[in-house]
Structures are given as C-alpha cells and as structure tokens.
Amino acid sequence: MEYDPAAPGLERRSDIGPPWPDIWIAAGRATLPLSTRMRRWSRGRTFVVQTQDPRTALGAFDLVIPPVHDGLAGPNVFPIVGAPNRMSPERLASELARFQARIADLPRPHIALIVGGRSKAFDLPPQRAAEMAQEVARAVGATGGSILVSFTRRTPSEARRILREGLGALPGWIWDGEGENPYAAFLAAADAILVTEDSANLATDAAATGKPVQVLAMAGTSAKFARFHADLEQRGIANRFAGVLRVGPESGAYAPLDETNRAAREVLRRFSAR
After folding, report:
1. Count of CB atoms within 10 A of residue 220's CB?
2. Beta pairing class for 219-220 and 122-123
3. Inter-residue contact 121 to 145 (CB < 8 Å)
4. What's the Cα-to-Cα distance from 253 to each of 9, 165, 200, 224, 256, rounded to whole Å?
5. Domain segments of the chain: what residues?
6. Which of 20, 42, 64, 243 lies 20 to 30 Å (CA to CA) from residue 233?
7. Span 257-273, mean pLDDT?
C-alpha cells in the first residue's frame, strides 16, 4: 500500500495491501472498517490505534485514545483531556511571527475570541449571537484592550454578521476569512482567550497556550461537554465566562496542555513493549 500525495483518499475500489505499517493511527467513523481489519490483514504485525470513542468492541484495537469526558475505560484505553491537536510552543511562536506586524500595535490586553457554530448539541442563532457580542464588547471595553476574532466553518453566516457589527467598534482584528488564517497567531498573541462551548478542539487548542481560557455559552446543552468543561475548570485551565475577563496576575497560571505528546509517548511505549 503506497502513499500517493496527489490521491484524494481511499475509495471502495482502492487497492489495499502490503507492505503494512508498523503503527496505524486513525480517527473518525469513516476509518473504522479499515482499523477493525488492520490487525487481521497484517497478521498482527500492525499496532492499531484509534483516537476518539470508536463505539464498537475495543478488542479490535491495540490502543484507544478517547477524550476523558467520554468516560471510556479498559486495559487498552488511554484517555486524554480534550482532543489531539497540532499546537506547540514552536508553532505558536512561528505563527505569531508571521502576523506580528498586524497585531503588535493593538492595545493590550489582547483578547482572542474563537467562535464555533452549529453542531448536534449546540447552535448560535441570531439572538444568542447578539447577546454574545454585547457581553464580549462590554468586557473587552472594560479592559481597554483589543479583540482578535476568528470564526470556524460551522459559524452561521448571520451570527458572523451580528458579531462583526457588535464588535466592530473595538480596536482589533476580526478575520474576514480572506487570505491566510491567523487563528494560531491569535492564540499566541492573546492575553486571554474566549471560546464557544460547542467544540473540544477549540478549548484544547486554547489550553495549549497556558493562557486564561473562558467558555462562552451557546444555545443548547450537552452532558458530555459539561463534563469536559468541568474537568478543565478543576484543572485550573478554564471557567465559564460571566461577563468579566480573566486577565492579569489574578487570572491564575497552569502548565500548557500537551495531551497530544503525552498520547504519542504512550503509543510508542506500548508499541515497544509489545
């Protein structure tokens, strides 16, 4: 099975065969038909790792790496806080350097606002977007600082418009989706970070900075995400936004979250032990 960088991905008619990888790491339901067969295909040679909860028998995998808030347990389960990500001190510094000229002269503190959107459990309808804009504008204005806003692909267009209008009078940068994405630079430049509650990825990325993180309410509820945010709060990483920003010495400090490397070390440890 050779890797072709020009290929869009596997299809039903794709030829799958040896040489088999030493370690197979997969995520998402679409990969499960391959992951659950990989040990059989490779005659036990390949060490099979599935991230997230596969929602199937765990015996098909050598190691499962789900988020802690999924509550999964077992001898081949290694839970992590949040989700694997690509944030690191090196990447954050590199991304900040690329956009420093646009950010450097903005008044401090820099407040990053990372907005998610519609999901199975949450939504950002116009009324909640308007309330969010008012809450954030009031809090940022009270600090005398500036706003750095990044939307995701799931942010409804009407919510984007409302937030842009509601936050547009503040000094800062509301990324319009054109050109290179300054998302990681916003996290690196921030003195405090606001993330919406719909995404474990957004909160995990923010927690990789070691900066104060606060979680913005959306329309909807989720017991799973409630457990996730409670875990972050217990670890001193994040808390619910209640109109006042956590900035300055009183905001508290924590070690940047680095669960991706912790999980990688566990994969290598178990692979070597086998």
Report:
1. 17
2. antiparallel
3. no
4. 42, 33, 20, 26, 9
5. 23-81+262-273, 89-251
6. 64
7. 96
Residue 1 pLDDT greater than 50, yes or no? no
* Neighbouring residues of 43: CB distance < 8 A, sequence distance ≥ 6: none
- Unique residue bearing structure tokens 């988020």: 67
Which of 165, 169, 155 is CA-nearest to residue 199?
155
In CATH, what number does 89-251 get?
Answer: 3.40.50.2000
Q: What is the pLDDT of residue 2?
A: 43
Among 97, 99, 114, 107, smallest CA distance to 211 is for 114
Checking if the pLDDT of 3 tops 70, the result is no
Q: How far apart are CA 273 and CA 175, in angstroms?
A: 47
Of the candidates 128, 122, 105, the residue with the CA atom closest to the CA atom of residue 202: 122
Q: What angle do CA 10, 15, 16 make, to 5 degrees?
A: 80
Q: Look at the pTM and tell me if it is higher than 0.85.
A: yes
Angle at 221 between CA 127 and CA 113, to 5 degrees: 55
DSSP state of 107: P
- Do residues 195 and 114 lie in contact, with contact meaning Cβ atoms separated by under 8 Å? yes
> Is pLDDT above 70 for 104?
yes
